Amino acid sequence: MDDTVNFELAFERHLRSRVEDWQSSFLTNRKEWDDFLNGTFGVLWTITQESAAVALDTPQRVKYLRMRADNGSADGKDEYYELLAKVFLEDGQPRKALACQRLRRRIVPYRTTSEYWRERHTAEINDEIGKIVDPMKPLEIQ
Q1: 102: closest CA among 65, 69, 77, 120?
Q2: Which superkingdom does the taxonomy of this entry point to (predicted)?
Q3: How far is Cα 51 from Cα 124, in angstroms, rounded to an integer?
Q4: Does 48 share its domain with 8?
C-alpha cells in the first residue's frame, strides 16, 4: 500500500469543499471581509488556475469563475467570459462567443495589470474576435 499523499490535490479538495460556505458568508456581509480578499477572492483564484483545475471539469470551472466574477474581480470576469467564449465556440454558438469576447474587451481597463499588458491583452482579445467574425461572414458570390 502506498502511504504517500498528494497534498496539493488534498488542499484543492479542501478548498472546494469550503467555497460554498465562504461565498455565502462573503455575500451576507461583505464589509466584514478584508478588501484585498473581496477584490481577488484568492480561494476562487487558486481553484480556477491551471494547476488547480486539473481535477475540475468545465461546468465546475464556470461555476467558480462566475463566483469570482460576481465578487467584483475584473480579472475574474475576464477569465469567466474567456471560458464562456470557448464553451460557446465548442457548442457551435459563435454569436454568444463573440458577445463574451466583446465583454472581455470592455473589462480590460479595470484589470490589475500595467498599461503595456492591457494593450497586449486587448490585442489578443481582438485576435480572438477576428477568428470568430471571419467564419461568420457570408460567402460572397462572384
Answers
A1: 77
A2: Bacteria
A3: 23
A4: yes
For 17-66, the three-class secondary structure string (H helix, E strand, C coil) is HHHHHHHHHHHHCHHHCCHHHHHHCHHHHHHHCCCCHHHCCHHHHHHHHH
Which triple of cell numbers denotes residue 23? 461565498
Contact 113, 121 (CB under 8 A): yes
Question: How many other CB atoms are there within 10 angstroms of residue 10's CB atom?
Answer: 10
Q: What is the pTM of this model?
A: 0.71
26 with 78, same domain? no
CA dihedral 78, 95, 86, 45 (to 10 degrees): 20
Residue 14 is assigned to a structural domain of this protein: yes
Integer Cα distance of 31 and 67 in angstroms: 17
Nearest-angstrom CA–CA distance, 117 and 65 = 21
Instruction: Give the model confidence (pLDDT) of 29-79 as tens digits.
Output: 777 766 555 545 666 767 776 555 556 778 888 888 888 888 777 888 998
pLDDT tens per residue across span 69-126: 887 778 889 989 999 999 999 999 999 999 999 999 999 988 877 889 889 999 999 9
